[in-house]
Design the sequence.
């Protein structure tokens, strides 16, 4: 007769597995074994499913029935219970990994945007994230270190989550930039184009004409939607030897587009001093540093904000559409930029921003939209 003395405790298998083996060998049913052991079928079923730990008494009964030692069954049960605790710890580890990933990147939004494949388990998610970051192993401390410059530049409301998500967006922007091929960077050409920006705001198809000129000056431009909780408007950085401007299209308004572009060109011409320098901008952030204020000043100058206010100052109490058109013609600036400036200053209601506006993303060449 074969006995269970040749069996060895196996990981993941509790006593129930080996009891069933012996039942099959003997062609016993659960009713047969429960009667032999002197227990109810319900009690035996719990033992077979490993839902009930073996007592010393029950191990002795099993030893008598299957010609083994009681210690064999106690060992099987103890090893199985230990494995269950280990398995639980593994689940906790996976939960911790997922939590660390979700803290640093909005996974569901990234999947929705096609930046990450969907996943079936933590292992697949981890591999997808490794591919996104181009790493062999996730170093969360290193990711946090890279996030630090964003935290240093922003207000207290811009917390660790916002900064981490913003850096994830910036990383995607860096991945996207090399697919655009432009001329060698020409600073003088960009400066000349910058000084003519207001004229492009009035041109039919002015967005695409300006983007084409940016490319000819060696500046990469593309649209990349912001991630949840980042509230970003744009960014400026280097990709190789070419500066990059990214527009998120968060507001899709004419004035927002031109201010973002003007602001980021200001960074390129005055603040991108090293290949590793980058600017990720949220124009609603209340606390600004010196470099952001400087870029704002340049953008305001290019978009003739002071001239707009001075020209319309006497008409603000009864501002009319013809007055806005007259200002636009005199200053060579799009009416939507005028309304946007006045709304920003709270001189007129924000509801007026719908005047003269259009969805910029519907006008930009789809090749530049990601």
Sequence:
């Amino acid at each position: 007769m074969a006995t269970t003395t040749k069996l060895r405790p196996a990981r993941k298998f509790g006593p129930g597995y080996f009891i069933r083996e012996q039942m099959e060998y003997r062609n016993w049913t659960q009713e047969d074994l429960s009667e032999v052991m002197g227990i109810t079928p319900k009690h035996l079923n719990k033992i077979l499913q490993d839902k009930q730990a073996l007592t010393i008494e029950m191990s002795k009964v099993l030893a008598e029935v299957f010609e083994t030692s009681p210690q064999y069954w106690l060992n099987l049960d103890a090893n199985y219970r230990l494995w269950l605790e280990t398995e639980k710890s593994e689940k906790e580890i996976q939960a911790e990994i997922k939590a660390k990933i979700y803290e640093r990147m909005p996974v569901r939004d990234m999947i929705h945007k096609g930046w990450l494949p969907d996943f079936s388990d933590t292992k697949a998610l981890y591999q997808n994230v490794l591919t996104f970051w181009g790493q062999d192993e996730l170093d969360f401390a290193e990711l946090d270190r890279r996030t630090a410059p964003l935290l240093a530049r922003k207000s207290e409301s811009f917390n660790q989550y916002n900064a981490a998500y913003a850096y994830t967006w910036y990383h995607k922007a860096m991945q996207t930039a090399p697919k655009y091929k432009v001329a060698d960077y020409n600073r003088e050409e960009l400066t000349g184009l910058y000084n003519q920006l207001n004229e492009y705001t009035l041109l039919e198809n002015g967005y695409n004409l300006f983007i084409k000129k940016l490319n000819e000056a060696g500046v990469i431009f593309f649209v990349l939607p912001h991630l949840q909780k980042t509230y970003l408007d744009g960014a400026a950085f280097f990709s190789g030897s070419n500066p990059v401007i990214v527009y998120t299209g968060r507001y899709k308004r004419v004035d927002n587009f031109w201010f973002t572009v003007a602001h980021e060109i200001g960074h390129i011409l005055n603040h991108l001093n090293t290949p590793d320098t980058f600017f990720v901008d949220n124009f609603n952030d209340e606390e600004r540093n010196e470099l952001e204020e400087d870029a704002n000043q340049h953008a305001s100058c290019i978009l003739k904000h002071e001239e707009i206010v001075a020209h319309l100052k006497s008409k603000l109490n009864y501002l009319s559409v013809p007055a806005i058109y007259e200002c636009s013609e005199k200053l060579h600036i799009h009416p939507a930029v005028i309304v946007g400036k006045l709304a920003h200053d709270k001189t007129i209601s924000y509801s007026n921003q719908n005047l003269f506006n259009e969805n910029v993303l519907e006008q930009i060449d789809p090749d530049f939209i990601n």
About this structure: The mean pLDDT is 89. The first helix runs from residue 15 to 26. DSSP finds 17 helices and four strands in the chain. Residues 161-368 form one domain.
